[in-house]
Amino acid sequence: MKKTLLYLALAAAPLMASALTPVVPVVKHQQAMKSPVVMTGSDDRFSVMPGFINAVPAATPAPALRADVKSMTFALCSSPYTALSFKSQTVGDVVKQCVELDLANAKKFAGNQITAINIANPMNNSGTNPIRNVTVFLTHDLEAEPFYTQDGTLGSKGGEYSTVTLDTPCDIKGDKPIYFGYTITLTQACVSGGVYYVVVDGVPTDNYSAGWLYFKADGKYAWDSAVEYYGGLCITATITGDKLPENEVKMAGLDAPVSTAAGEEFSYVFGVQNEGVNEVSNLELEYTIDGESKTVSVNLPEALAYGETGIYGLSGPVATKTGMNLPMSLRVTKVNGNDNKLASVTSSDYYNCLPAGKGFMRNVVIEEGTGTWCQYCPLGYTLMEYAREAYTDGSLIPIAIHNQDEMAIADYQAVIQAYFSGFPQYIANRDLAFANGFGRSLEQNKAILQSFYTELRSYKSVADVELEAVYTDATKTMAKVTASTQFAMDTDNPFRYVIVLTEDNVGPYRQTNGLVGQDCPGYEQFTRGSQYVNLVFNDVARSISAAGGVQGSVPTGVSAGQTYTYDYNLSLSGVKTENCHVIAMLLNGETGEVENAKMVKLTEGGAGVESAVADGSALTVSGTTGAVVFNGEYTTANIYTTAGALVATAAGESSVALPAGLYLVKADQTVAKVVVK
Q1: Please, is 54 exposed, middle or buried when counting C-beta atoms within 10 Å of its C-beta (0-12, 13-18, 19+)?
Q2: pLDDT digits (tens, 9 = 90+) for 216-232
Q3: Are both 542 and 672 inside the same structural domain?
Q4: Do 217 and 267 belong to one domain?
Q5: This prediction's pTM
Q6: Residue ranges of the alpha helices (H) in 100-166?
Q7: Terminal CA-CA length for the chain
Q8: Domain-ending residue, one of 552, 567, 601
Q9: Which of 186, 271, 550, 642 could cross-link to 253 by cystine, CB 3.0-4.6 Å?
Q10: Residue 268 belongs to a domain with what CATH number?
Q11: Edge to edge, what strands does the sheet with 620-624 contain?
Q12: What are 344-399's pLDDT values in tens digits?
């Protein structure tokens, strides 16, 4: 199971409101719900513009229509984000770009007309459009001749939308898909001339209807797509008529709380998208938890127009059943008091419900995908450095996962493939509800990270994690890692440990920098720099036990209050151990998410976890059920958690009663690591 990608566009923590009062929108925007994360370098046929499209106005409206005629903009893209050039194209080559009104949408809009095509202008490095003359086209088949063509003129500003109104509107009959787009002949070189002909929204997608390209590769023209790397093409169609869909709102995601407590009201966040021509101001929602369904009426604080997505927060449900990975579903049953024609579209999520008053504080693991080849990765580098400085108590655990550079490790690539759609990008606790790309403002990026951290910390964890990592030999080439955990309730849910080694002060290595000269507040180190900068990298992942966790590292079926330990032999080959941290992540085996985690520095060796004896001392210290036991004479003893908190003292006693857990004991000159069962 995976959570929905609902939070990816948030700039602040979700704002919750009572189910009986107007909700507060977290974000509202066109179509896409993900932040732009352009996968630079993923497709070697293209080059990405070194920068972002800054101010982008809305599409130029079509000519005024009669009052009784309605129109809407059909779009499979979000706002323009950046632009691409073709590495292999030359002056005189032909390029075609188009978007598909697929068969399902053709049936939906049957009886109406396509009256205009809206095009985000190509651009050069100076921000102007080098292509003014285009030929728009409509076709049912990319390999066939278009059934409609018309010359048009684009505006002069790069990245801005221009509208070509069709002299003869195209009837939508609903029996065939319709591809709409335009053809240009290149008048300037691409890469060498700094011209970028393909404007994209930077939101990778597997919906190929969002963009098709016709260009020359290896000396031959062919249709292809790059939406899986760079997102949808910024081309839209104006659809006009008196048979436009009404009262159609579909679910666009649901995020239940990570955890709640039995008998307590909880909050959730959901997204809806208006696919009808009429504005939406009121919704009736039906949610289902614990096998029971309830409805709630919600007045939106701002009406949603066609194509707009609203993300809102509500509270109200009360869970009574405790357990892991409990289901919740949500659907829209009515729109403005009318039956929703898309009521069958349901969003689902899951949550953990703990016994009242139980649970542990949750730490937050930030895994960042990055690479020295990636021109926008200085955005992520800067945020990760901020996180190191801002969170020093171990509650935020940073891990930089490098891809296709000198610091990349093969065993971590499975995480990149499973969770990252581009670079730079990060994910908190391997929960897709807390994944994000990067904007141009450091303060905005800080706010999103802080909101993720704050919200995740607010959810109690079913498990606590303690950790120690001790050198096992004088050469410091191996370490014994011991992770221990307790659970707040009995559960048969599977859990697995992931052990990660990170290293600081790695490099310097040359980092590609695409922020030069860009408007990126807070990133002046890079905006005022050069195309390449030498950086020293921190939190670099050097090894991982198993990307998806070690099978059998936690027993199947655990009991509340009992301590479970896992030992792992960690190789320290090839790293500077004084710069290293060891991280233990406890994964939920059903969801793959991080239930809790702990990070520690490597320490000097002892005689083991169960007991330890100092050289020349007759005193031994060991752990037993419910107590630390001293066998021999000593004057004073201090007992600490592995996090360094003093929990007990002793002055010659033979034993000290303690809760189950892993402890560090210092008795006179004897230092011992013990497990109390």
Answers
A1: exposed
A2: 887 789 999 989 888 89
A3: no
A4: no
A5: 0.75
A6: 103-108
A7: 33
A8: 601
A9: 271
A10: 2.60.40.10
A11: 611-612, 620-624, 627-631, 655-657
A12: 999 999 999 999 999 999 999 999 999 999 988 999 999 999 999 999 999 999 99
